[in-house]
TrEMBL record:
This is CCA tRNA nucleotidyltransferase. PANTHER family: CCA TRNA NUCLEOTIDYLTRANSFERASE 1, MITOCHONDRIAL (PTHR46173:SF1). Its cofactor is Mg(2+). It holds the Pfam family PolyA_pol_RNAbd. It is an enzyme of class 2 (transferase). InterPro entries: Bact_CCA-adding_enz_type3_sf (IPR050264), HD/PDEase_dom (IPR003607), HD_domain (IPR006674), HDIG_dom (IPR006675), NT_sf (IPR043519), PolA_pol_head_dom (IPR002646), PolyA_RNA-bd (IPR032828), tRNA_adenylyltransferase (IPR014065). CDD domains: HDc (cd00077), NT_ClassII-CCAase (cd05398). Its EC number is 2.7.7.72. One of its GO terms (molecular function) is tRNA binding. Keywords: Magnesium, Metal-binding, Nucleotide-binding, Nucleotidyltransferase, Transferase, tRNA processing.
Length: 486
């Protein structure tokens, strides 16, 4: 598959671009550099901002490395701006803002790790080259000294950037042993940048995948989110699975590699899932649309929609394969996995809901629904209706053109039905024709379970018949109340 990530200019073009990029740094940065130089300290722009500048991307936040110690950095930053912060002081980082320019300045680092956790024992370094050696990949181990604008690239990061290659500055076993999260970052950058992972680096990831067990769930989640919001999500997910990292992060994904039966009664669920993710991304809208991309909830729902298939797989008489109720099982599995990864409650609820509903449409193509069924579909989807539209469409990956067209036309018809009903009545937040206060007044009852039962009865009538009008609703309510012997 062709990468969806932006193409990278050639090495010669990147080299020619360098001088102009550094000369275009904000005047505020030049002033900051002069302050550090005047105090006898080194200062260099490092990491992602340097890489992104070569790729033609602007960066609002600028990262710097310095020979100054944190207390010295803080004093200098306070001469540059009143808006400073020191939440990262433990790791040598002091931040500041001046207008739209946000900077974080970190003392040269030479971290040491205790081997049991990924938390570094902070040790300050003495040189820029030593600081760059401890970074994750060569494309992030480039720097520009300020104010001289000298480009520093001790590990060939620019060449790797031009070649679209991810490689560690030092031996990958040492780098990943120091910080196993870097293996997740490799998969994330494969998604964000569309880069290939260098064979030796990939082999180290595969050999050391179990080291991810010492990384906190929150840090793993953050890397997974960045991967899922990237431009080439399929490449990132493929790296996770192929290197064995997914087995420790998202084991439900490699579990989708079910053995395809000899008669091919079911498709490759893993490849189907990756295709559904891609197709869902293609259906995201721009900022003015109902599902602006990149949309994390839609992408996670596409990724997890079929994880209930492996535990529900059954071989049927005659050689067929079934996955009965896999959406129900999958919804429970989705909630469990996302909770373990420390996702927030709103995201968990939305993704779980979409997984549970992703099969609801099937059957419409065989028997056109009543208005009542359409109302229930909209009501059950609730706030996730627009995402459900896209997930359902993305879930069609059949190569049978006739079947694909039939499903597409059926969903077109369903969306048209929803639009028609919207013109005739309120269906996005369906409520009974009488509210709780009216119910209590009409029946002469106090708040309690009877009010809830009456409300539910009227809601069912509203779903089945559409708006009743207040007069008919009152008659229906009285009849229902009398039928209960009240």
């Amino acid at each position: 598959m062709t990468s969806r990530a932006p193409s990278v200019p050639s090495l010669d073009v990147l080299r020619q671009r360098a001088a102009g990029l550094w000369g275009a740094l904000p005047a505020d940065v030049a002033e900051l550099a002069d302050l550090f130089a005047g105090a006898g300290h080194e200062l260099a722009l490092v990491g992602g901002p340097v890489r992104d500048a070569f790729l033609g991307r602007s960066s609002a936040d600028l990262d710097f490395a310095t020979s100054a110690l944190p207390d010295q950095t803080e004093r200098l930053l306070k001469r540059w701006t009143r808006a400073t912060w020191d939440m990262g002081r433990e790791f040598g980082t002091i931040g500041g803002r001046r207008g739209s320019v946000v900077v974080e300045v970190t003392t040269y680092r030479a971290d040491e790790y205790d081997g049991a956790t990924r938390k570094p024992v902070v040790a300050f370094g003495s040189s820029l080259s030593g600081d760059l050696a401890r970074r994750d990949f060569t494309v992030n181990a480039m720097a520009v000294r300020l104010p001289s604008l000298e480009f520093v690239d001790p590990f060939g990061g620019l060449e790797d950037l031009a070649g679209g290659l991810l490689r560690t500055p030092i031996d990958p076993e040492v780098s990943f042993g120091d910080d196993p999260l870097r293996m997740m970052r490799a998969a994330r950058f494969a998604s964000q940048l569309g880069f290939e992972i260098e064979p030796g680096t990939f082999a180290a990831m595969a050999a050391m995948a179990d080291r991810l067990a010492i990384v906190s769930a929150e840090r793993v989640r953050d890397e997974l989110v960045k991967l899922m919001l990237g431009a080439d999500v399929r490449a990132g997910l493929g790296a996770l699975v192929d290197a064995g990292l997914a087995a420790h992060v998202l084991p439900e994904l490699p579990a989708l590699k079910l053995e395809v039966d000899e008669h091919h009664h079911h498709k490759d669920v893993y490849e189907h899932t990756l295709t559904v993710v891609e197709q869902a991304i293609d259906l995201e809208t721009d900022a003015s649309g109902p599902v602006p991309g990149p949309d994390l909830v839609l992408r996670l729902a596409a990724l997890l929609h079929d994880i209930g298939k492996p535990p529900t797989r059954r071989l049927e008489p005659g050689g067929g394969v079934s996955f009965h109720h896999h959406e129900v099982v999958g919804a429970k599995m989705t909630a469990k996995r996302l909770k373990e990864l420390r996702f927030d409650k709103d995201t968990i609820k939305a993704v779980q809901h979409l997984v549970f509903l992703h099969l609801r449409f099937h059957g419409y193509a065989d028997a056109r629904w009543s208005d009542s069924a359409v109302r229930r579909y909209v009501a059950d989807a609730g706030a996730e209706l627009e995402r459900l539209h896209r997930l359902t469409r993305a879930d069609v990956t059949t190569r049978n053109r006739r079947k694909a067209d039939r499903l597409s036309f059926a969903y077109d018809d369903l969306e048209a039905r929803i639009a028609e009903l919207r013109e005739q009545e309120e269906i996005d937040a369906i409520r009974p024709d009488l509210d709780g206060t009216q119910i209590m007044a009409l029946l002469g009852i106090a708040p309690g379970r009877e009010v809830g039962a009456a409300y539910k009865h009227l809601l069912e009538l509203r779903m089945e018949h559409g708006p009743l009008g207040e007069e008919r609703a009152e008659a229906e309510l009285r009849a229902w109340w009398e039928s209960r012997g009240a």
